[in-house]
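Researcher: Let's try something more involved. This one mixes different molecule types, so please make sure each is placed in the same coordinate frame as the others.
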Amino acid sequence: MTSPRTLLDKVWDAHAVRELDNGQTQLFIGTHLIHEVTSPQAFGMLRDLGLEVRMPERTFATVDHIVPTDQREEPFADALADEMIKALHANCARHGITYFDLPSGLQGIVHMVGPEQGITQPGTTIACGDSHTSTHGAFGAVAFGIGTSQVRDVLATQTLAMTKPKVRRIEVNGRLGPGVYAKDVILHIIRTLGVNGGIGYAYEYAGDVLARMSMEERMTVCNMSIEGGARCGYVNPDATTVDYLEGRPYAPKGAAWHEATERWLACASDAGCTYDDVVVIDADDIAPTVTWGINPGQAIAIHETIPHPDRVPPGERASVVEALTHMKLEGGAPIRGTKIDVAFLGSCTNARLSDFIEVARVIAGHRVAPGVKAIAVPGSTLVKEECERRGIDAVLVAAGFEWRAAGCSMCLAMNPDKLVGDQLCASSSNRNFKGRQGSATGRTVLMSPAMVAAAAVTGTIADAREVFGTREGVTA
Amino acid sequence: MSTPIEPIRTVHGRGVVVRGDDIDTDRIIPARYLRCVTFDDLGDALFWDVRHDDDGRPTGHPLDDERFAGASVLISGRNFGCGSSREHAPQSIRRAGFDAVIAQSFGEIFFGNSTTLGLVCIELGPDDLEEIARAVEREPAVAIEIDVEAELVRVGDRSLRGSIAASARRALTSGRYDPLAELLEGDAAIAGVAERLPYVGQR
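Model: All components are placed in one shared frame. Result:
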């Protein structure tokens, strides 16, 4: 009888190859995901070292960061983007790596494609040269972002040198109010624990609220783990996880399916296991949440006022002043009513089918306010097609949104979708860093998709519950 | 394996202070500079958007202050390098001539990426950090020495106790901070784990 173990313990032990000289673990990476921005240099390093890809069947590629969301035919107008995408194509072809490219109809943000294809599975290790790889933790995978030299390491050895994290269990108990979404849960967690509170930890999200969440909602929560400093965040697999994966292209079939589901459910943390830390959050304390500053922890409930530099602890004053200066906001003022210029629905945080269903539900019959540029960018080509099959695109276009093709788009503005000057963007994405959306003076306010819709139709930061009423939505 | 690497036991140099907490990797290197297939030309892009105004004119950033020209130790605040996993961030710091970063704490992915490149990241408590920042701002030529093994930062006649994760310290001082060679040595054990995992090779 072994003592109770966390999911992290079980997955770590199953994938530990050996201990390295410096005390780190050589960890086997079951699934490696790559995209056009952080992989070409890694393939270049392999070439320089004369190394081959050790297990090409365990790496999957797609194109997301730099791909235009309007022009979809190659060559792309941006010569550098064209070169990067061609490099990915050539590297995949040369090494025999499965590539979900544009013509496949399966392209999308890498953290959407893995789950959609059933490549993301419980009890596995997943690495990708992107910090939002934590998204895959929604399935009970140990998934984390890596640098490009580490992409090289995985390509060459299918392993990484890693330090085992501590585990903090974050229980969210109770029931979310109407108009409070998974995005609000994670913004509230980051606000509570800080943007550096998770350094050295994996976050285990649990409690009634997580148990009731759909897989798409769990992905939204796990996605932003890194914004709280935690490189990896996960939810223990359950029946919701299994139901999501059944029938997906890469999910096991037949007898292997039953064997896999038993294995998946068994990798959940055991009752009575010990955590390095436990935090309990009451769902009643979570309101629709928006950021006011330049990191995702600088967030308030929609009805709160923006922090005043004179009323925060001395150690935080400089950061608050810097944030307010960049955001051109006034300490002590309400955030509600702040004028916006752009509304962005998209990113690996919130561009899944359920996000667009909810936005279409609330926005039907409303119009985007004059002078607001509103764009909707589905996270994957499959989500785009399903939205179009259901007429969701027509609802959004009728409301005044531009309907685009799949990619990261204005989340990080590596493609032509960018803020201009000091435009303020109501954004369903994950980062409000200075310059994040493509203009050094651009301003980002993070929020849920329904709140982006409310901001779009009022032209101001608004409470979606007031703009659209508080009918029960798809929220957990 | 090529790329033989030397142990990094100490770093000597002059400092430059980039003040602020939670300086993220988007600020260190804006995403538009990620549009490249090699890391070769990233040094100039370091902190570009805070070093230049909308018209491309210098904003008087410490990195452009000639008093700090030639600095090889970057001094900043809490949670330096948070955010994106882009290795472009430590690559640009390295290529701009830096050998070490001193901060109150580091984003985890940034820390790992930096160590792999031999960029020493050492944490100091807030009071000590402020002391060294003021010393450098007062006297830009002041000599800084980082003793990796002893986890000490010496500035002038002061010796400040810092902290470097044990694994990074051992990797730097043994010269094996780029782990690839050691990972490749585990080949047989890798095959064993792959064999044992039910989902690997399954379709």
